[in-house]
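During the first year of the project, the team set up a workflow for recording each protein of interest as an amino acid sequence followed immediately by a discrete structure-token representation. This format lets reviewers and collaborators read both layers of information side by side without switching files. As required by the reporting guidelines, we include two representative entries from the current panel. The first entry is reproduced here exactly as it appears in our internal archive.
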Amino acid sequence: QVQLVESGGGLVQPGGSLTLSCAASGSIFSINAMGWYRQAPGKERELVATITSGGSTNYADSVKGRFTISRDNAKNTVYLQMNSLKPEDTAVYYCNADGLSTLVGLSVRLLEVWGQGTLVTVST
């Protein structure tokens, strides 16, 4: 069974830094894109950043220049380095793997998988 496990959330002061990690485990042949999304209280889930297996990245305008996404394909792990954090960055951050190739029964399937979420709180 494939799952994504996030780590690294917590409480940080404004202007501080935090690094999130997300490791995919299970029978995985490859993952096309991995990314981070977030959901603040009372708001819809929004894209933060994504990265393809080839290293192409995409960022939300609100985090450009402050956040950096990276991945280790050999470890099926994606990271999110967050700098210059602001109170409005407070949210539950979810890891996403899209185009994840895995064995389901006797067939190879492409799945989209979500992590359970990790809370990031930016506050004094």
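The second entry, processed by the same pipeline in the following quarter, appears below.
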Amino acid sequence: QVQLVESGGGSVQAGESLRLSCAASGIIFSKYALAWFRQAPGKERETVACISWSASDVWYADSVKDRFIISRDNAKNMVFLQMNSLKPEDTALYYCNVDHTFWPMLDPAVYSDWGQGTQVTVSS
């Protein structure tokens, strides 16, 4: 069973940056694709960005393309999300997850194990 621990969230002004981190354990990390998801109040959880096991492929939601960068460190079993030019609409609880079947990881409902998430709040 995978364990996921997200960190790095906070409260920032529009235009500022944050870097989220996620530590995964309980799996052979290098064999899994990884993704960041987010869920805003009153909205469904959505996929933000995905990275393949080798980091050769990445996918971004249109809403974050050119602003967010996903990366991974297989030696440390961690995935990161660099979030630049943050907007109020980026405000959400951010989660990571892993998969070795689906690419990209577009359906959050597929996953049953989640971490506690990390809150990102962007004010205008």
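For the second entry, the following points were noted during internal review. The chain has a mean pLDDT of 96. The first strand starts at residue 3 and ends at 7. Both points are flagged for discussion at the upcoming steering committee meeting.
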